[in-house]
Specification:
By secondary structure, the protein is mainly α. The chain contains seven helices and no strands. Helix 4 packs antiparallel against helix 6.
Length: about 150
Amino acid sequence: MSGTLAAMLFEPDVQPRVRADCHALIGQQVSGMSGVSGTAVKLAYKAVNSFAPGYYENIVTAIVPQLVDKLEPYWTDFETSGGSEFGDYLAKRGDEVSEDLLSVTDAMAQNSERPTIIRAYRTIRGGAGKHIQAALPQVGDLVMKYAT
């Protein structure tokens, strides 16, 4: 395993599979949520899909490169440290990694011109860190799937 995440994940034959895996991961994470915050996320997800069909697909396409940029320093450190599971590495740094990743969506929400999207995001932002932390092992697995 060596090279940048962007080099590995954005190869022309790999990028569509990465995007599809990201869509699947988001769907799995949302459907598996429970409790009050899980209900809020599910409602926000449903609202966005209802009021802005195709929005998530477009956002995933646009956001993945920015998220990869945020994950790059963690990948570099992971490779240097000789770790074997990137998901475990990310999970051990959950607070830091989730805030780095949320900085991307925070900026997107701030720049959005869609009031429904902004409201939905504000509804879930407070608990978003814990949901991202819960998904970090799967994010790491997704990256490892394409690491060459």
